[in-house]
């Protein structure tokens, strides 16, 4: 029996071209129907771009309080990169705006650059086409209007980075696996790798395969989750509220009992110390 009001965490494999908010909206609509109320809180733990697929954690009810904890977990990505060309968004959202020579690059050079420049603590400037705030406005809204966007670099950690596939020297393509900290933009990483190779680069595909301990094999498709939700039984909002109230009453009684016991222990300790001090004084008088 599911209890979305008290809190559930659902793990989905976000489909291509769907925004993370659209996934939240879909699940929230299904839960509202089954619970018979619009008062259903749903949020996600870590945005995935529309052009990315993979692990997306959806939290409901009181479990939304765990979002910061969940999205702080280490993340793993599989990224496809094309060398020799850049786009304003660093991925396929926008058209190629410049091309560069790439035939001087081989796999050995790529692997050396990745290990020497993109492992451990690094500085990264987030993309202009991102949700980073500039004077209170998302950077992507300004970038799409053609405004120049200046974003400060952020410190992040790359725990692991490796080449999985390499099309060089025939094709300027790479597939890499990245294990990184919260806040890493793989699009920006593709940009920086291109520059470090004295070329250009942009992201052509991205899949998040892990968030914390949650791996892609533990995730349902969005359609699969909806089917699961349609087949489940639910704790009603009224029962969920009553259960929470009873738990809070029990916790308050237990807290009060602990505080009473601690006060009694402190009082006993003080009395023992006073008795010892009095005995010492009496001995000194004798």
Give a description of the structure.
This protein has 286 residues and is α+β, with helices and mostly antiparallel strands. The protein folds into three domains: 9-71 and 216-233, Pseudouridine synthase, CATH 3.30.2350.10; 75-211, 2-Layer Sandwich (Pseudouridine synthase); 236-286. Helices cover 38% and strands 27% of the residues. The protein has seven helices and 14 strands. Strands 1, 2, 3, 4, 7, 10, 11, 12, 13 and 14 form a ten-stranded mixed β-sheet that branches. A hairpin with a 2-residue loop joins β8 and β9.
**What is the molecular shape?**
extended
Which structural class is indicated by helix and strand composition? alpha+beta
**Count of separate DSSP helical elements:** 7
The main β sheet shows up as: 10 strands, mixed
Number of strands: 14
State the end-to-end distance.
Answer: 75 Å
Please state roughly what percent of the residues sit in beta strands, choosing from under 5%, 5-15%, 15-25%, 25-35%, 35-45% or over 45%: 25-35%
The CATH architecture of the largest domain: 2-Layer Sandwich
Helix content: 25-40%
The whole-angstrom Rg is: 27 Å
Q: Provide the CATH top-level class of the largest domain.
A: Alpha Beta
N-to-C order of helices and strands: EHEEHEEEHEEEHEEHEEEHH
CATH topology-level name of the largest domain: Pseudouridine synthase
């Amino acid at each position: 029996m599911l209890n979305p009001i008290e809190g559930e965490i659902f793990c989905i494999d976000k489909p291509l071209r769907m925004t993370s908010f659209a996934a939240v909206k879909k699940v929230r609509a299904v839960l509202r129907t089954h619970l018979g109320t619009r008062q259903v809180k749903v949020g996600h733990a870590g945005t995935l771009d529309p052009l990315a697929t993979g692990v997306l954690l959806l939290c409901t009810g009181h479990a939304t309080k765990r979002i910061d904890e969940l999205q702080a977990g280490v993340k793993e990505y599989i990224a496809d990169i094309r060398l020799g060309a850049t786009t304003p968004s660093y991925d396929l959202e926008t058209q190629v705006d410049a091309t560069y020579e790439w035939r001087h690059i081989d796999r050995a050079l790529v692997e050396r650059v990745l290990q020497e420049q993109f492992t451990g603590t690094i500085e990264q400037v987030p993309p202009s086409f991102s949700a980073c705030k500039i004077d209170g406005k998302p950077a992507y809204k300004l970038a799409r209007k053609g405004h120049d966007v200046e974003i400060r670099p952020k410190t992040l950690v790359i725990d692991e980075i490796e080449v999985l596939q390499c099309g060089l020297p025939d094709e300027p393509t790479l597939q890499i696996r990245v294990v990184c900290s919260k806040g890493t933009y793989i699009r920006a990483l593709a940009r920086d790798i291109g520059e470090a190779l004295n070329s250009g680069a942009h992201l052509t595909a991205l899949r998040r395969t892990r968030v914390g301990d949650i791996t892609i094999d533990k995730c349902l498709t969005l359609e699969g989750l909806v089917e699961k939700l349609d087949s489940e039984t639910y704790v009603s909002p009224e029962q969920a509220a009553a259960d929470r109230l009873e738990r809070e009453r029990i916790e308050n009684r237990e807290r009060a009992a602990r505080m009473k016991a601690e006060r009694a222990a402190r009082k006993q300790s003080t009395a023992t110390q006073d008795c010892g001090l009095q005995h010492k004084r009496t001995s000194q008088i004798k």
